[in-house]
Amino acid sequence: MLLELNKTTHYYLKQQKFILDSLIFSRLKKTFFFLLLFFYSQLLNSQQVAISTILNDYLEICYPNHSFDNFIYIGIKRQKLYVFKNRKIVASYHVSTSKKGAGNTLNSFKTPTGLHKIHSKFGNNVPSGGIFEHREFTGKITTLNYDTIATGEDIICSRILRLEGLEKGFNKLEDVDSFKRKIYIHGTNEEGLIGIKASHGCIRMKNKDIIELFKMCSTEMLVILLEN
Questions:
Q1: What DSSP string runs through 150-166?
Q2: What single DSSP character describes residue 136?
Q3: How many angstroms separate the Cα of 215 from the Cα of each of 77, 187, 190, 209, 223?
Q4: Which pLDDT band holds residue 5 (cuts at 50, 70, 90)?
Q5: Per the confidence metrics, is the pTM higher than 0.90?
């Protein structure tokens, strides 16, 4: 009888130890996970601080006659768009620039570089995925493609931010004029290609992202596009 009691007690204690070990392991996993998230967020934050510092210094040197408190930075190599408010990054999005690379020449189908501004905005209250032709909503809604294979279509949808170059002879006037080239930041049906160079010269964004960005920016807001 005593032997059976000892066996039962031993089994019970082993079971409790297993439960306790499982709880400790579970808590350790959670602690490790939160620590990992913390260090990752710190890393992202330090990267953003580095981008902000380097970029602000660069802009002050290259464009001393402009104020860069609030602006948009598009990094072509990174395929990222950053929104700056009070010289700090407040939002970032993946984008898709030209599959032909960077360039400012008319009919090159390349994404222009240099200093621009938002000339005009189109699409307020247009439903997500709403298709534009000549910057007018057609009343049609696009079907989104999430594949990483191009459809061959270059549909402009949801919102449009039309850019105007500010550097004469580089992205303004003559055969390098971004405004005449109809360079937009806009939504796309090819969301699977966001983060990949795939556009015909414009800056493509996911539809939910361009709708969000549209609310955050205004006409005359500066936009700097850099290849690296």
A1: --S---EEEEEEEEEE-
A2: E
A3: 26, 14, 22, 10, 15
A4: very low
A5: no
